[in-house]
Specification:
Layout: E1 6-8, E2 11-13, E3 20-25, E4 30-36, H1 40-57, H2 62-78, H3 80-91, H4 95-115, E5 123-124, E6 131-138, E7 142-146, H5 154-165, E8 169-173, H6 179-192, E9 199-201, H7 206-215, E10 221-225, H8 228-237, E11 242-246, E12 251-255, H9 261-273, E13 283-289, H10 293-305, H11 323-338, E14 342-345, E15 358-361, H12 368-371, E16 378-384, H13 387-394, E17 402-406, H14 410-419, E18 424-427, H15 454-460, E19 463-470
Parallel strand pairs: 7-8, 7-10, 8-9, 10-11, 12-13, 12-17, 13-16, 15-16, 17-18
Antiparallel strand pairs: 1-2, 3-4, 5-6, 6-19, 14-15
Helix pairs in contact: 1-7, 2-4, 2-6, 3-4, 4-5, 9-10
């Protein structure tokens, strides 16, 4: 069994804790390696290395930093099958999705390679003569990146790409469910030419590694993707830092009575059961017009029951990531039954860590399964009478990441775009499938207003500096010039 190290100042090494943990293949429940159980001392050393490397990294032209990202993208592209299989083996999503996870990192690094030639500021006029005024983008400093297990290559790339091209250095703490994917991604960046100390990786528990990273006085920014409860803790304990949070959601698909029913079913199956429902954009609510409810349910159940469940490398639906996740899903299913939601299919755990696609109907907005994020292959059909009621039901949760409506009526579509309180809205498509060159993030309990990916990634991982250049040869004072009396 191979033992992997942590990366500090360009050197792979054991943790000062002397302890390791196993990462498990959820399809087979067998260990794929031993990983360092990092601690506070490791974080302190990693932050010190990142702080030291920052002084030279920030001065490297952004185009040169960006070239390293492009090289990393090309390495991933050449060995995409290898890295995609690794995602499926360690995380448990089907192979096509594992390959897609890697493709998203390729696309992200290529996109931020382009941003190395932009990094736009603004130029404007001054209220004084012989004075220039404009803004530039400057790096923040040492950034702590804390990432989840469900997109073990893609989500780290969303953070690493903009953080690095903007001139920041990084201490990266991946999920303990997918440490190998994180290590392999960082090794790709090393092969691409990243200088030592610019990226440091510390595996280990959130209670030690994550906590110290959040509280460390030399860490200038925390970017976190994960649970709402942890996001709230970070907000209270990070001190005066820039914070980026993406905290999940409870996403709705609205299916109107004029919808293309087959398309709506296909979109729902993909959104509800893709990645075994383990996406922050998964559709765990389907708000259906009563006129087409029965026809929709019949088609959806038939499609769900055709999905093949098994080893992630060879099946359409892989396992849940671990036993805790499976127990959580079963608990929510049991709650749904107790609250009198009608079970149409699924609802009982399979062998190992597998769980079948599960559909409830006659779910009301106040039911627990309609309000709380389940993060498994469970969706709830909620019947409504009209679009106004559908939007009200959609908005009746604490989250606001992704939403969707299936309709052939442009008026319905435009009303949904205007009134759905979510950061993303799809028309006649699934709630999943964001593209890397557009901002990603949500409203309400989904986050703190920041956005990842696209041009928003540069905004998130940089500071605005305002510059004034006075070439008048005298001290001019804004807001204090005498413009003389107003003429009547």
């Amino acid at each position: 069994m191979k033992t992997y190290g942590i990366l500090i100042d360009g050197k792979w090494q054991p943790s000062s804790s002397g302890k390791t943990f196993d990462s498990i293949n959820p399809s087979s429940e067998k260990s794929i390696g031993k990983f360092q159980q990092g601690n506070e001392k490791d974080v302190d050393r990693a932050v010190a290395a990142a702080k030291k490397a920052y002084e030279s990294w920030r001065l490297m032209p952004p185009t040169e930093r960006a070239d390293i990202l492009l090289e990393a993208a090309l390495i991933l592209q050449r060995d995409k099958t290898h890295y995609g299989e690794l995602v499926s083996i360690e995380m448990g999503k089907q192979l096509k999705e594992g390959l897609s996870d890697v493709q998203e990192a390729i696309d992200t690094f290529k996109y931020f390679h382009g941003e190395g030639r932009r990094m736009f500021g603004h130029t404007t006029t001054s209220e004084l003569q012989n004075k220039a005024a404009y803004t530039i983008r400057i790096p923040i400093g040492v950034c702590g990146l804390i990432t989840p297990w469900n997109f073990p290559v893609a989500i780290p790339s969303w953070k690493l790409g903009p953080a690095l091209v903007c001139g920041n250095t990084v201490v990266f703490k991946p999920s303990s469910d997918t440490p190998l994917n994180a290590i392999e991604l960082v090794k790709v960046l090393e092969k691409a030419g990243i200088p030592k100390g610019v990226i440091n990786l510390v595996t280990g528990p959130g209670s030690t590694v994550g906590k110290r990273l959040v509280e460390h006085p030399d860490v200038r920014m925390i970017s976190f993707t994960g649970s709402k409860a942890t996001g709230e803790w970070i907000t209270k304990n990070a001190g005066v830092k820039k914070i980026g949070l993406e905290l999940g959601s409870k996403n709705p698909i609205i299916v109107m009575d004029d919808a293309n029913l087959d398309l709506a079913v296909e979109g729902t199956v993909w959104a509800a059961f893709g990645t075994t429902g383990q996406r922050c954009t998964a559709a765990s609510r389907v708000i259906v017009h009563k006129k087409i409810q029965k026809a929709f349910e019949k088609k959806l159940v038939a499609a769900a029951q055709k999905l093949k469940i098994g080893n992630a490398l060879t099946h359409e639906i892989g396992p849940l990531v671990n036993k805790r996740a499976q127990d959580k899903v079963q608990n929510y299913v049991d709650i749904g039954k107790k609250q009198k939601a009608k079970l149409l299919c699924g609802g009982k755990r399979g062998h190992g860590l597998f769980y079948p696609p599960t559909i409830f109907t006659e779910v009301t907005p106040k039911m627990t399964i309609a309000q709380e994020e389940i993060f498994g292959p469970v969706t709830a059909i909620m019947p409504v009478n009209n679009l106004t009621e559908a939007i009200k039901v959609a908005n009746s949760v604490d989250y606001g990441l992704s939403s969707s409506i299936f309709t052939q009526d442009i008026n319905n579509a435009m009303t949904a775009i205007r009134d759905l309180d979510f950061g993303i809205t799809y028309i006649n498509s699934s709630t999943i499938g964001s593209e890397v060159h557009l901002p990603f993030g949500g409203t309400k309990g989904t986050g703190n207003g920041t956005r990842e990916a696209g041009w928003a990634g540069v905004e998130e991982f940089s500071e605005n500096k305002t510059v004034y250049i006075d070439y008048s040869g005298k001290l001019q004072k804004a807001q204090m010039k005498d413009s003389g009396p107003r003429k009547k």
